[in-house]
Amino acid sequence: MNKLKHSLEQRIFILFLIITFLMILALIFIEWQLAKFGIRQYETKNINQVLTNYKFSKSQKNSNSITLLKDIALTSGLSDVIKRSKPTEVNDFINTEIDQTLTSFLAIYNEDLELIYGNSWEMVESYLEKISKTADIIENDVFYSNFGKKLYRLSYHIIKNQTTGELVGYLINVENHNSITPSNEFIGLTYLLPYPLSLTSEYPISLAAKIEKLNQALTETISEQKSTDIYWLSIDQAVGVVLNYDVFHKPVSIFLINYPRDVNRFAQQSVLIFILILLAISIIMITILGTWFKIKILQPVHLVSNTMNQISLDPSSIKPVEMTYEGVLGDLVETFNEMNSSLYKYSSNLKEYKLLTDNMDSGIFWLDEQFRIILFNPGLMRIFGIKQREDLINRNFTDYIKLDQNQIQKALEDSLTLTNLATVIDGSKKFVLLHIRTLRTSGTTKLLGNITDITKEVKDKQAREALELELIKSNRMAEIGKRVEGIVHNLNSPLNSLLGYAQLLKKSNPKNVDIDKIIEAAKNITHLVKGLLSKVKSDSTAMIRPLDINSLIRQEMQLLKHNLFFKHHVKSKIELQDNLPPVRAIYGDISLCLTNILNNALESMQHSEKKELSVKTYDQNKMITIEVTDTGEGIFKQNQEVIFEPYFTTKQSQNGSGFGLGLAISKNIALKYDGHISVTSVRHQGSTFRINLPEYIIDE
């Protein structure tokens, strides 16, 4: 304990010495600053007195120039004469009404900037456009300009009609600006041509070595558009300046005051020497105390700092610091080692949580109250199709998942859960499961959410439902087929009897034409019954076998003739490729697929003026294509990608029928045999559906 107490007292004593030393330095610094402040205040006062006198003299002359122009502008009848823009009339009026001895150079311009009195001067005309642009804001002003190595004061006044206030012209007067003669103490008026200033005989010797510093100071003053400034160029040189600008804010002249600082040099040097002595002693003390401080305090602190830096770069490298220190530093090291142990456990848990969230398929995210994304895992980037994290930070969540105002309000108040939410992400339709809940802590509100892409599950479910419906429909069709087959068999006997009796009657009455009609009709019915029986047998045969697509199409088109709308209103065209390779499939599947598309084509032409149906087959790239073209109402562009989805239909809104399963079943049948269906359509012109099936190659 005594040893620890001694160590603490020693460190407190050293700390006292350091604080005392710092206080001495602070007092020296304050003394130096006060001395500098007092000296500068004294110099500023003297320089400003001269600058003020110069500026007051210049202001008086400016005021007199403006007053003179105002009196001229208010001369009765002047605005009317200028309005007429007749130089001769203006010249007579000025010579009669105005004392010309009061002005050095007087020029009058009309509202179109045309000279109607006085002589043309390039210097004056270079400023006319700028003056006219500010006429609505500045009625009169005075500025300076140099021309031919001389400085001029230009004053102008806007002339307006005293009754209507309408602008009629510009009154401009030019006067020589007399410069102050240079002396040992002052530099008079000097032109800023060329700029920067160059060393000439006009400047005193004391400024010769400081012309570069003066130019640097002037550049900063001009860039800030200041008119007055004071520069302390060195310990023995100060300069006061007044800058004159033209209407373009371009410097045209400078008034310099050269102020020698010899009077204050002794005070400045004395303070400087005192400071240098104290600094030398302080450096020696700092060297001695710094070495001790480095060994006793800085070295262990440096060791702890390096260990902490290593931990920040690689938390897995956490190691305890050896306990070789006593007193306060020993307590610090012990506390540091305990902190290391806690950080190691926390880092391990954090890695496990991060590994878990980074490998989740679901997206986890934090939102602020404005629904901006502030934190998220890689799963959210995969769902939204984002490659870079920076592209998602601070983006609004509703840019990707569309939520209405009620849903947003519900999420902010408590929680929001949406199952099977359909949305469009990265140009493709997806189904997601979304849950958002509000967390309020320490006066802040954040929203924690997770989102899961269930597109595959939803589409699988829809496909299963469509296939189940297809199976149900196939079973019903098979049952109907059996019944139709029985009915057809029962019809065959009466038809054969009818045909036989008719033929007997024909032998007895060979000239009876009506009997021929009966025989012909009976034969047609027999042909139709046989065709129907053949189709029923083919549809009910659930066996995959090579199919002749052309024969199937001919049979379907033959049966389609029993549709009254097709028979009486639709013009059909069939183009079947000769020697078309077969496809391997169940007859009933391909028949159902084609029938659905043919029925849709007929329904689309119900209200069309032109009613034409074309069926075409061809072989291309080992694929058999059945192409069905109609001249119906066509399909909207936005519907062309969803017409093959289950339950999508436009018929319900039109005639109250349709479940949206026909094209979905046709698509599933094509996919079943490694084929596909596509559509191209133009609104009010028609549609073309293409059923593509792989051709069946018979092994030789």
Report on this structure:
- This protein is α+β, with helices and mostly antiparallel strands and 700 residues long.
- The chain folds into four domains: 175 residues, PAS domain (Beta-Lactamase), CATH 3.30.450.20; 72 residues, no CATH class; 94 residues, PAS domain (Beta-Lactamase), CATH 3.30.450.20; 159 residues, Histidine kinase-like ATPase, C-terminal domain (Heat Shock Protein 90), CATH 3.30.565.
- The protein is built from 17 helices and 21 strands.
- The N and C termini lie far apart (105 Å).
- The N terminus is likely disordered.
Give the helices and strands, then pairings.
Blueprint: H1 2-73, H2 78-84, H3 87-97, E1 105-110, E2 115-117, H4 122-133, E3 140-147, E4 150-160, E5 167-176, E6 189-191, H5 205-208, H6 211-223, E7 228-234, E8 237-245, E9 251-260, H7 265-313, H8 327-358, E10 363-367, E11 373-376, H9 378-384, H10 405-413, E12 415-425, E13 428-441, E14 444-453, H11 455-508, H12 513-540, E15 545-547, H13 549-560, H14 564-569, E16 571-575, E17 583-585, H15 587-604, E18 612-620, E19 623-630, H16 652-655, H17 662-672, E20 676-682, E21 686-694
Helix pairs in contact: 1-7, 11-12, 15-17
| Number of alpha- plus pi-helical segments | 17
Q: How far is it from the N-terminal to the C-terminal residue, by CA?
A: 105 Å
Rg from Cα: 52 Å
Query: What's the CATH H-level superfamily name of the largest domain?
Result: PAS domain
Low-confidence stretches: 1-6, 180-186, 653-657
Percent strand equals 15-25%
User: What is the structural class?
Assistant: alpha+beta
Indicate the overall shape. elongated
- In total, the number of strands is 21
**Domain module tally:** 4
What's the CATH topology label of the largest domain? Beta-Lactamase
Largest sheet: 5 strands, antiparallel
**Shape-level CATH architecture of the largest domain:** 2-Layer Sandwich
List the strand order in the largest sheet.
Answer: 2-1-5-4-3
Percent of residues in helices comes to 40-55%
